[in-house]
Amino acid sequence: MDREDLISREFLARGYKVTKQRRAILSVLDKSEHPLTAEDIYLRIRAENNVSSLATVYRNLKTLVDTGYVVKAGLFEDKVRYRLQNDPHTHNLICLGCKKVIPLSTCPLNCLGETLGEKEGFTVTGHRMELYGYCFECEHKGDQINRK
Question: Is the pTM of this model over 0.85?
Fold first, then answer.
C-alpha cells in the first residue's frame, strides 16, 4: 500500500471525503521530489487528463493542509509551495536553487520550546523550522548567483 492509499484511508477514518480531486493532488505531491505551487499541481493534474480548476486545487489544498496531510513548505518567488507531510515533527533545509527539501535528523528546538514556554508562561504544542540556502550541488553550480 502506497502513501497515497494510507492517507486516503486515514482521511476516510476522520470523516472526510476522498474525492477524485484530492486523490489527484495527493498523487502529484507523492510523485514530486520537491515542493510544488498550487499552479504547478494544477498543471500536472491537467497534464494527466484529470479535469480540475485552479480554484478547486486551492480549496482542496486548504483542506489537506488543515488536516495535516500536506504542509506549506515556505515561500519561493513569493509563492507558497506544498508537499506531503512525511512525519508530523520535521525540520528542513530548503535549497533555493533546486528546491530540494533536506530533512534534519534531529530537532534543534525541543529544549528551546520548553525553556521559552516556561519563561513566557506559554504551552508550546508544536513547532516547525525551515532554513533556506543552497545545497552542495547548487552552491558549486553557481545557482547562488540568483540570490537577492
Answer: no
